[in-house]
Amino acid sequence: MDKFPLDEFRLDWRLAGKAERTANDYVKALQDFLLAQPEPTLVGAKEWIASTTSNVVRRKRGQAVRAFGKWATQHGYYIFPWWRQVPLAREVQRPQETVAEADYKAALRKVTNLRDRALIEVLWSCGLRRSEIARLEIGDVNFGVGFVVVRTSKSGKPRIVPLSPPARHALRRHIGVRSQGSLFEMTTNAIRLVLVRLEAPSAHAWRRGWAVESLRRGVSEASVKSTAGWANGAMVSRYTSALSAEVAIEEFKRCWNSRIGNQ
């Protein structure tokens, strides 16, 4: 396995600004592949990919082999010359739970303290991951302009996320006189348990709901992608495909109303 430069592949992936977690997942999959196929061939890759019944795992295995093969070829390591021929299992899109405004209002009706109210407002306003919320510091909140700085995210890049006026107000009340330290003083599991107690959807369902609601209200896909920390528009399309027609109708209505107003 030493002849396969997996560490260099992982390092270049990170230096390119891509998600470190993805690189680690790919390297782990490639290590498993090379243990099963010490002298990898296209047929061997197909056999290894097909050795699991999970369509999701098959796709991830194929992606790992193709990503490494492409990188290796670009860097003069002709060890997976057949990488383009590696099949990718078709991704099956299933309905995913997505928070709507009714869920947001229902959760607010059940909160009993300032911290939980601030948490719900941040989830609805920012669409942050649980891990990102857990790592927020008080100093990451800019009340003057109205945003939070997510210093460490899944992609490894910091980003700025706008705060709605209700979220800003709820955070001010929650923080009180504190000037430093953890914003919520909660672990990711503690956040999960709060949502369970409030009978509210998961944090990821809030993230999807935030993306859908933002697009519905006229925020551009580019802004949603940037604020969410997604490297491309694929996640935007995945979360909002069911609402694409509705979003298009709203956009055309705004366009027509603007035309009428200018006449």
How does this model look, in words?
The chain is mostly helical and 263 residues long. The chain has two domains: 80 residues, DNA polymerase, domain 1; 154 residues, Orthogonal Bundle (hpI Integrase, Chain A). 59% of the residues lie in helices and 4% in strands. It contains 13 helices and three strands.
CATH architecture classification of the largest domain: Orthogonal Bundle
Tell me the helix content: 55-70%
Beta-strand fraction estimate: under 5%
String of helices and strands: HHHHHHHEEEHHHHHH
Rounded to an integer in angstroms, the radius of gyration calculated over CA atoms is: 22 Å
The CATH class assignment of the largest domain is Mainly Alpha
Short key terms for the protein model shown above:
DNA polymerase, domain 1; three-stranded antiparallel β-sheet; 4% strand; mainly alpha; hpI Integrase, Chain A; 59% helix; 263 residues; 2 domains
Tell me briefly what this model is:
With 263 residues, the protein is mostly helical. It is built from 13 helices and three strands, in the order αααααααβββαααααα.
Explain the layout of strands and helices:
Blueprint: H1 6-15, H2 20-36, H3 42-50, H4 55-74, H5 101-110, H6 114-126, H7 130-135, E1 141-142, E2 147-150, E3 159-162, H8 165-175, H9 188-197, H10 203-216, H11 221-228, H12 234-240, H13 244-262
Antiparallel strand pairs: 1-2, 2-3
Helix pairs in contact: 1-2, 2-4, 3-4, 6-8, 6-10
